[in-house]
Amino acid sequence: MTTTTSPARVAFLILSEDPARALPGLVMAARMKVNRGADVRVLFFGPGVKLAASGAADEHLDALRAAGIGAKACSANVEQYGLAAEVATRPLELLAAGAEVEEYARQGYTVLSF
Prior knowledge:
The chain is an alpha/beta fold and 114 residues long. 48% of the residues lie in helices and 19% in strands. It has helices spanning 19-36, 48-54, 58-66, 75-80, 84-88, 97-106, and strands at residues 9-14, 39-44, 72-74, 93-95, 110-113. Strands 4-3-2-1-5 form a five-stranded parallel sheet, sandwiched between helices. α1 (19-36) links the parallel β1 (9-14) and β2. The longest helix is centred in the first third of the chain and has 18 residues, at 19-36. The chain is globular.
């Protein structure tokens, strides 16, 4: 008898603008999706939007997109930090982060923060 299990549901909340802290989370997100078939979400929040806008994570954003993961960023933080022009050139969907994190909880995602 074989048992079928559902893929893990993991949301990566990128809070840090420090590449040494945040980029391993982005690598893990892409690898979990590609290697394990996990249901992965990525959200840049707070200072993490500065990292997303800086260009330091561009290679990782491309890897996420190639893996089928649409990264998102908090629209209020983008506005707060004055990063609209920088974020507009990157593959990021802007949304209300609070509602997104609430949805992660409702849908049973494990949230990891980096």
